[in-house]
Amino acid sequence: MNTKYDILIIGGGAAGFFTAINIAEKNKSYKIAILERGKEVLSKVKISGGGRCNVTHACFIPNDLVKFYPRGERELKGPFNQFCSGDTIEWFTNHGVSLKIEEDGRMFPETDSSQTIINCFLDACKKLKIDILTFQSVQSLFKKEMGWKVDTNSDSFLCKKVVVTTGSNPKIWDMLRQLGHTIVPPVPSLFTFNIKDPRIKDLMGLSALATVKVKGTNLKASGPLLITHWGMSGPGILRLSAWGARILFEKKYQFTLQVNWLNEISFEECIETLKELKVENSKKQIATFCPFDFPKRLWENLTQAAGIARDLKWADCSKKQLITLAEQLTNGHFQVNGKSTFKEEFVTAGGIDLKEINFKSMESKSLPNLYLAGEILNIDAITGGFNFQNAWTGGFLISEALK
Prior knowledge:
With 403 residues, the chain is of the alpha+beta class. The chain contains 13 helices and 21 strands. 33% of the residues lie in helices and 26% in strands. The strands form five sheets. Strands 1, 2, 6, 7, 8, 9 and 21 form a seven-stranded mixed sheet that branches. α10 crosses α12. The longest helix is centred in the last third of the chain and has 17 residues. The radius of gyration is 25 Å and the shape is elongated.
């Protein structure tokens, strides 16, 4: 028995629901269903942002917004001019969900609960009579003359148009590969660095604004760096991991990280500052007097690494010791041995080759009536609500193309 639908959405996540709701609102005559392989829909929405759901980011200019996407920057310019962060805020407001902006630009529901977003989507689906079918694991996808046939583990469906929003699902990627699409091999993005080093030992929870580089490459990022019990994390490290996803994969996550704990202050500027301190604070002990705006315990460890005894006074500090300290502060070398997944927000770099997608409609260039949105494409962003924004924008464009 083949169940017939006008539009079938494969994937019950953020992109799938947003696409279905927007299509249904623009054309109430469509019969639409969402297929989800698991027992629960919107599971990634539920855990995102520590259970608060980081809906989008308060960056309202498309040309600025695209800069947060290591993969997809060029392709998303047009789409973001059609549906950007401001449109997301308006959409959720119109659907009864007020969003708030936090200091770092991230946007959350005012309730601080991802359940608010889930309820919004489920209520809209109920109102619009969108069928939500769980435990439907897609086994095959057939191109028919006038549409598609989708077989799952328990049913068969016929539909005019298919929207695939399954994220980084290898099984679906493989089906699309067999239908002629190119899949850019997936590698992890957004991860933290495993580092064992006496300079950061027992400093778990301390953070500093720093600039980090991967030695021997052009990879560089700035931002808060958080010391963890396994090494280093924080926005600066995550940014570096996202932009360096492929390079660091090739290095098998074994590389030297150069850290400037003073962020934008150069080695030369640091030396000059240290010389002035030597004169002005001659009687003070170096290890106990931290002149820079970062954790005192980290300063103590870096002075020790520079070979400065705990009781050494500024007046007795040699030129060589000052140079070594400036190097520790502005260009400390740390050996990275492996990575750790960043919380539960695992993001993959890879997916359907962007050259094969029409970014005006999100339709496949080679398979008519097949549309794709979200992380199934080779698009990913740094943490901060950007991956969700990509999902909303893709879903909106599909709904415009199908109205």
